[in-house]
Amino acid sequence: RRAASIDRVTAGRFVLGLARGDRPAETGLFGAGPAADAFRTISRMNGEVFEGRFPTLLPLPAHQTGLPLIAVGQFGLTVPELRNLCQGLFLATDANVHRRARHIRTEWPDALLLSVIRLKLDPDPDTPVISEAGNAIRCGINSLIAHLQSLSEAGIDHIALNLRLERRPVHEIFAELAEHSIRHYQMVASCGARPA
């Protein structure tokens, strides 16, 4: 009911992400079998709800065939299995993300691939990408734009930037991102290329 409400309020722009737990202690509680079964059930029920098999659901969602589902992790399922259950995957941005994204694209070309970067934006625009603990990176704006482009070329469609680790004032970070990325995207759009 809550998801249907959000879907209606956002005029169909809502995407539901489902995870089985991001900590080893949590994922160990579920194991591959029960988590996979639970994801299959949620996927099936998502379609049934929106096909009208549950007529008491109000408000009616904007989507008529079910909310777009994104799997956060693979639930112990293969890429072909996930392809039949959801619209995409949320990938951890670690050292293997490029390889995983390219592999998934070979088996599931139309998947929506999403990820997040825990970012520390260095004031020096040319600071290279430096990996830090917890899948975080520290880099300058020029290196960030190149890194985002490489993720896009690997097949990732959407990247969220997590700034919780940032010590600089957030309005400075937003201003720097806006100034440099807007110029980059305008240049890419004028060339007809796909932006990062």
Description:
This protein is α/β, with parallel strands linked by helices and 196 residues long. It is built from 7 helices and 7 strands, in the order αβααβαβαβββαβα. The protein has helices spanning 2-9, 24-30, 32-50, 79-83, 97-107, 141-154, 170-191, and strands at residues 16-19, 69-72, 88-91, 112-121, 130-132, 136-139, 158-162. Strands 1, 2, 3, 4, 5, 6 and 7 form a 7-stranded mixed sheet that branches. The longest helix has 22 residues, at 170-191. The protein is globular, with a radius of gyration of 19 Å. It starts with a helix and ends in a 5-residue tail after the last helix.
What layout of secondary structure does this protein have?
Blueprint: H1 2-9, E1 16-19, H2 24-30, H3 32-50, E2 69-72, H4 79-83, E3 88-91, H5 97-107, E4 112-121, E5 130-132, E6 136-139, H6 141-154, E7 158-162, H7 170-191
Parallel strand pairs: 1-2, 2-3, 3-4, 4-6, 4-7
Antiparallel strand pairs: 5-6
What brief labels describe this structure?
globular, 44% helix, 196 residues, seven-stranded mixed β-sheet, disordered C terminus
